[in-house]
Design goal:
The chain is α/β, with parallel strands linked by helices. The chain has two domains: about 180 residues, Rossmann fold (3-Layer(aba) Sandwich); about 210 residues, Rossmann fold. It is about 35% helix and about 25% strand. The protein is built from 13 helices and 22 strands. An eight-stranded mixed beta sheet has the order 13-12-9-14-17-18-20-21, with helices on both faces. A six-stranded parallel beta sheet has the order 3-2-1-4-5-6, sandwiched between helices. The structure holds cytidine-5'-triphosphate. The site of cytidine-5'-triphosphate (CTP) has 15 residues, from helix 11 and strand 17.
């Protein structure tokens, strides 16, 4: 999954021949999961039609402050457009528009929107080689970068004039990769590794039966996604779960039993910065697993159980720099029990959910948590979707880890 997935991208197109390439650019953004709106300067319509761009972006294309043809939508609000965007990209950016952006000129919708935008702004210059080298253009480029606008440099090659040199707009795929890399490099967990356990474990009784629990894995998978969205490389060790995950930063490791989860967790732990153990690991397993299916010949069946290895406690015992987070699902005396676990298992933080709270715990789409850190600071959160809870958990970890 691209870091652009779910992002709102406002593409400003100006009147350069490279405008014809913006059809591919819009397609690539849409393919990466972004939502796209397009604003064109009036002159850019000579190079590519608004119909092409509105069809590809699945949104109306705006180029003037008001639509004479549509009496229901007279006013194209540049402030709304500017505030809507997570990212604004001006591509191709001509010398004329770059100069106007640098000097605060506001004589078309694109420029008014640029001045209203609060999001990061990228621009991909495109012009003839002598225009690109002109001191006036260089001054515009420098000025825009001093505003923290990000330049996607032009490349060298054959230009529309027939001359060969610098001034070609970067290729659409390179523009997309540039923006993706730029976003990634600024993510707070870039370069960090996160280990997660999620879901239930199944402890075999015989070849067809097992002891399990109702954990769905939803919470752990949501945390994996939240951590990956912050730029972390995530190792998600999961017991049997129907949850799906699609993110290029998440490596899924499927296990079945507590013993397998223990081995997998220990395989990766020494190499990670953060470990979050949200799995509902079985506390007991059958002491002897029958090799053949157990027949129901007797009226009762006694299965002797023995304790599984406590993965969390075992990691707490060997941890060095890792930030270790456990979960506690309690029914009574919640805070005291959770603090006890935090200390006993040598954790940096524990996430408490109480089964007393409606909407918290297994299988639901919501959760209500309290986070307690190793200094015994407590922070209680409202009932939220598991996706939102996952973001809260990651934010609390971010506040406490060494950068
Ligand atoms: N955990 C683990 N390995 C186990 C059991 C639990 O890693 N074999 C982890 C869980 O992933 C969770 C935390 O430990 O992060 C839960 O703590 P635990 O002591 O298992 O809670 P309870 O089972 O509720 O303990 P108790 O029965 O003592 O309340």
């Amino acid at each position: 999954m691209s870091v652009l997935s779910g992002k709102k991208i406002l593409l400003g197109i100006t009147a350069g021949i490279a405008a014809y390439k913006t059809a591919s650019l819009v397609r690539l953004f849409i393919k990466s999961g972004a939502e796209v709106k397009v604003i064109m300067t009036p002159a850019s319509k000579d190079f590519i039609t608004p119909l092409t761009l509105s069809t590809l972006s699945k949104n109306p294309v705006h180029s003037t402050f008001y639509n004479k043809e549509d009496e229901n939508e007279l006013w194209n609000n540049h402030v709304d457009l500017g505030l809507w965007a997570d990212i604004m990209l001006v591509a191709p950016a001509t010398a004329n528009t770059l100069s106007k952006m640098a000097n605060g000129t506001c004589d078309n919708l694109l420029l008014a929107t640029y001045l209203s935008a609060k999001c990061p702004v990228y621009f991909a210059p495109a012009m003839d080689l002598d225009m690109y080298k002109h001191p006036s253009t260089i001054e515009s480029l420098e000025k825009l970068q001093s505003f923290k606008n990000v330049m996607i440099p032009a490349t060298s090659g054959e230009l529309a004039s027939g001359l060969v040199g610098e001034g070609r707009m970067a290729e659409p795929q390179d523009i997309v990769s540039f923006i993706e890399n730029e976003i990634l490099s600024k993510l707070p967990l870039k370069g960090k590794k996160v280990l997660l356990t999620a879901g239930p474990t199944y402890e075999a009784i015989d070849p067809v039966r097992f002891i399990g629990n109702h954990s769905s894995g939803k919470m752990g998978f949501a945390i994996a996604k939240a951590a990956a969205n912050l730029g972390a490389e995530v190792i998600l060790i999961t017991g049997p779960s129907h949850q799906k995950v699609q993110h290029s930063f998440i490596k899924r490791v499927d296990v079945t039993s507590a013993e397998e989860m223990y081995t997998a967790a220990h395989t990766y732990f020494s190499d990670v910065d953060i470990a979050i153990l949200s799995a509902a690991v079985a506390d007991f397993k059958p002491k002897n697993v029958a090799h053949q299916k157990i027949k129901k010949k007797d009226a009762t069946l006694t299965i002797e159980l023995e304790k599984t290895k406590d993965i969390l406690a075992s990691l707490g015992a060997i941890k060095k720099e890792q930030f270790l987070v456990g979960f506690a699902l309690e029914t009574n005396n919640e805070i005291v029990n959770a603090k006890g676990k935090l200390e006993r298992k040598n954790l940096d933080a524990i996430v408490l959910n109480s089964l007393q709270d409606k909407g918290a715990g297994f299988a639901t789409d919501t959760n209500k948590i309290t986070i307690i850190d190793k200094n015994l600071n407590e922070k209680a959160f409202q009932l939220k979707s598991k996706a939102a809870v996952a973001v809260d958990i990651m934010n609390e970890i971010l506040l406490r880890i060494k950068k």
